[in-house]
């Protein structure tokens, strides 16, 4: 009897031990499965993150491409003539007039640019180097450009080019282009010699720089009798020189600034469209 009792105890102990081992192995297997599921979840998150980053990157790239596509250069529609006016290249409106302002940015150019912007009146501002010496003047030039107006080269010191050596002329023109590019990020497309005094050398320099040489067809604001807003606006609008393709010369002056809105409205009132410089053919 004792023998059977002993055998029964041994079997009981063996069954308990086996149960413990199986339980341990089961727990280990469960732990491995849990760990695997956790790792899989982390990998999924990482993969998802990579996908999202890639998607954001692709979206940014696509947006940049779309932005670049929106900047479309306008096809030239007008060319300059021998008398400094403009004529249509094809079937563009012949009844246009170009506004230009020299000696910028002296005192009133920024305010004139703001007025022209409000009037949606395009124009070219021709710059002298001695008006962009200080940080304040450079900021003024940058503001005019950021308002949407092209910047032209009017030489560094407004000297008479025929009185200068070729090297001095180079510095007057190329040196100023370098300064303008440093301030606004681009070189001028237009060149106007002081007093309209071009030389063969200055014209060649302008061609090398891909600038269009441009004088004017008429202007009055430097004459004493027109140095007030009323008389200046009247002559600029009612002169017989206002014709198709007219190239109007004005300056950074107080009376010109005060007359500019009346000049714009008066020219438009005569049926002229103000010529967008972006439509002018340059070298």
Q: What does this entry look like structurally?
A:
There is one protein chain. With 283 residues, this protein is of the alpha/beta class. Helices cover 51% and strands 13% of the residues. Strand 4, helix 3 (135-146) and strand 5 (151-153) form a beta-alpha-beta unit. The termini are far apart.
Question: Could you provide a short overview of the structure?
Answer:
By secondary structure, this protein is an alpha/beta fold.
**Biggest beta sheet summary:** 6 strands, parallel
Number of strands: 10
Termini Cα gap: 122 Å
Instruction: Spell out the helices and strands N to C.
Output: HEEEHEHEHEHEEHEHE
Proportion of strand residues:
5-15%
Provide the gyration radius in Å: 38 Å
Overall mean pLDDT score? 83
Report the structural category.
Answer: alpha/beta
Question: Which ranges are low-confidence, i.e. pLDDT below 50, for 5 or more consecutive residues?
Answer: 1-71
* Quaternary state of the chains: single chain
Total of helices: 7
Helix content: 40-55%
Using brief descriptors, characterize the structure shown:
13% strand, two-stranded antiparallel ribbon, 7 helices, 283 residues, disordered N terminus, 10 strands, alpha/beta, globular
List the helices and strands and how they pair.
Blueprint: H1 2-70, E1 78-80, E2 86-88, E3 96-104, H2 109-118, E4 124-127, H3 135-146, E5 151-153, H4 166-184, E6 190-191, H5 200-208, E7 212-213, E8 218-219, H6 229-238, E9 246-251, H7 254-269, E10 273-274
Parallel strand pairs: 3-4, 3-9, 3-10, 4-5, 6-7, 8-9
Antiparallel strand pairs: 1-2
Helix pairs in contact: 2-3, 2-7, 4-5, 6-7
